[in-house]
Amino acid sequence: MNYLVHFLKGNRIAGRLTAPLLVGSVLIHTVYNILRGIHFRHHPMASIYEILSVTALALAIVYLVVELWRRNKSTGVFVLPFVFLIQVSSAIGIGPTHEIKPILQDAWFGFHTGSITLAYCAFFLSAVYGIMLLLLHRVLRKKKFGLLFDRLPSLTTLARMNRGSTLVGFIFLTISIVVGMLWALEKYPDELFNARVISVFIFWAIFGFSLAAHYIFKWSNRHVAILMLAGFVTMVLSSAVVNMLLASWHEFGA
């Protein structure tokens, strides 16, 4: 609510309260997930509702890091409602996990899934900033100024937030891939390269190239944002298709 008041009214008091309240919420949510994992003796992603809770936390953490890094809180109103909705969805159905599979007690599994969750959330945040950048670019081109123009960061700032989120996601995705491959070599050596792993490598390459497009090839901010959005769409579609059509050891049913 403070982010909304700050965005619409430019209220200084609301603006000053945004970051401290978000930090407090993130800390409480982190302690909750840790205590839940300790109590049930498993990695806190054993059900879809637990995954939603961790996803909401990861998205809030990535957003908070970007906000503090860029010192700009005007985009929180577009991101944090997603955090709220995801956590509400988790709270509606979450309950005790009675059947704990051994894989959920593996520390390397927790590190792998935690890293990839942070990566996906960072890529989502990058997509949000990319859309904002393209909208602001459109506003400037058509010269139809309004509240969006007044409140959003500059094109340069949005481009940095877009790239920064992608860089964070790319780092965590790389860590997740490395850990996952090493872990799979020991646990599932015969299924090391399945459809899901290949799809991850595809959008990993797209995001990697999008970063190279800026830092090496000096593409414009707009074209880099479009490429990063393409990477996000590829990630979502490939994950959806693989989940619906194909099975693998990633489903942890063994």
Can you give me a brief rundown of this structure?
The chain has nine helices and no strands. The radius of gyration is 19 Å and the shape is globular. The mean pLDDT is 85.
Radius of gyration of CA atoms, rounded to a whole number: 19 Å
**Which bin fits the share of residues in helices?**
over 70%
- Give the low-pLDDT segments: none
- The fraction of residues assigned to DSSP E strands is under 5%
For the record, give the distance between the C-alpha atoms at the N and C termini, rounded to a whole number: 44 Å
Number of domains: 2
How many helices in DSSP terms?
9
| Extended strand count | 0
Outline: globular
Estimate the mean pLDDT confidence.
85
What's the helix-strand series? Answer: HHHHHHHHH
Protein structure class: mainly alpha
Largest sheet: none
